[in-house]
Amino acid sequence: MIIKTKKLQGQVALITGASSGIGAGVAKALANEGATVVINYSSSPEKAEKVLAEIKAKGGDGITIKADVSNEKEVSDMFQQTIKRYGTVDILVNNAGLQKDAKLHEMTLEAWNYVIGINLTGQFLCSREAIKEFLRRGVVEDRSKAAGKIICMSSVHEVIPWAGHANYAASKGGVMMLMKTMAQEYAPMKIRINSIGPGAIRTPINHAAWQTPEAYNQLLKLIPSKRIGEADDIGGAAVWLASDDSDYVNGITLFVDGGMLLYPGFEDNG
Ligand code: BGC
How far is the centre of ligand 1, averaged over its atoms, from the C-alpha of 199 (Å)? Predict the structure, then answer.
């Protein structure tokens, strides 16, 4: 019997798109709870190494792996490399995602396919590889009550329509049903699958929304809590969903949005 001093001790977590933003915050939070982290990145090895160095400086451990999550072969190679190195994978955080915004009548098919490819198909490809491994290994009771956990990074835009971002909003609506369907399919095998739905979090993806005081004040009109979110806010939610503390939680989206989904426009209207 191993005595666990940290919630994720002895578990291996693969986080996609972890070289910056929410993914980096989640990798640090999981490592802080004892998980060994695989930091996936697509283009910037320096940034991924920097995240890993910060984790190691605090006593954590892990590796970085380059892979484009929309590429079937690169995804399967990434999982093989992880399993070869650490024996298995216990936690997948489907975090990689991006925006390529345009008015719908001006949106190119390339911009549509690019966003759907990374944000939605990428989550399918990574989940498929993780689930194969979870099914092969089954539950190891010293590590977790679950055979595996998947956390899908969704968005408030799985619910809120977003003019000028049809590809992004459609990808997140798709993530919601992918997550729920996978959760229904694999809950009997003790695999837990949930989403986090962040609101506005201070990361490079929405730089324009918080970089000037004018933009920030405009953004705050959408946030009842009257502050932008930080990557740490998402890290805490990820630790909970990855740990046995949430063992009876399956198929939900945990919104971490400062109340953005409370229709703040109705505060003094309607
Ligand atoms: C988007 C951000 C946006 C936030 C709230 C996120 O999913 O990526 O750009 O600030 O939703 O609208």
Answer: 6
CATH number of 12-266: 3.40.50.720
Is the sign of the CA dihedral 52, 55, 57, 59 positive or negative? negative
Which atom of ligand 1 is nearest the CA belonging to 155? 7
Query: pLDDT digit of tens for each residue in the chain (270 aa)?
Result: 566 789 999 999 999 999 999 999 999 999 999 999 999 999 999 999 999 999 999 999 999 999 999 999 999 999 999 999 999 999 999 999 999 999 999 999 999 999 999 999 999 999 999 999 999 999 999 999 999 999 999 999 999 999 999 999 999 999 999 999 999 999 999 999 999 999 999 999 999 999 999 999 999 999 999 999 999 999 999 999 999 999 999 999 999 999 999 999 999 999
* Domain segments of the chain as ranges: 12-266
Residue with the smallest CA separation from ligand 1 atom 5 is 200
Q: Whole-angstrom Cα distance, residue 132 to residue 149?
A: 12
Determine which one of 86, 114, 168, 248 is catalytic. 168
* Ligand 1 proximity of 199 Cβ (cutoff 6 Å): yes
